[in-house]
Automatic annotation (TrEMBL):
Residues 5-39 form a coiled coil. This is Oidioi.mRNA.OKI2018_I69.chr2.g4599.t1.cds. InterPro entries: RFWD3, Znf_RING, Znf_RING/FYVE/PHD. SMART domains: RING. It comes from the Eukaryota. Transmembrane segments: none annotated. The keyword Cell division does not apply. The keyword Calcium does not apply. It comes from Oikopleura dioica (Tunicate). Keywords: Coiled coil, Metal-binding, Zinc, Zinc-finger. Residues 67-109 form the RING-type domain.
Length: 121
């Protein structure tokens, strides 16, 4: 009987030790998650500020900050601004798709093809 009690005490002690280790690990993960959420929030705030600056900058120079086909704001990651020889601007992928369908500028209807597309940097 005393042997069983020693075994149970040892098992309880082992479980308590494991519980403490798990609590420490959980605290560390919670802290890491908090740090990552702060980084994400900072990134989103900076992205929003940059986007607002870009729109304001373009509008102050009489430029359209949005694609005339899909009406999305241009960016430097996925929706590059591109122009045709006629001077009209669009999202690069939008104008490529449009030219494949009809071979004309969607604004002025002048003939155009993919080689007329120039990315605006």
């Amino acid at each position: 009987m005393a042997s069983n009690l020693k075994t149970k005490d040892k098992t309880i002690a082992d479980l308590q030790k494991e519980l403490q280790q798990l609590k420490k690990r959980n605290d560390k993960l919670v802290s890491e998650n908090t740090d990552l959420m702060k980084i994400k929030s900072d990134y989103e705030n900076m992205s929003e500020m940059f986007g607002q600056f870009s729109v304001q900058f373009m509008e102050s120079r009489g430029l359209s900050p949005t694609c005339k086909i899909c009406h999305e704001i241009y960016d430097t990651n996925l929706h590059f601004q591109a122009t045709l020889k006629c001077g009209h601007t669009f999202g690069e992928n939008c104008i490529r798709d449009s030219l494949q369908s009809n071979g004309r500028c969607p604004v002025c209807n002048k003939r155009a093809n993919a080689s007329d597309i120039n990315r605006v940097y």
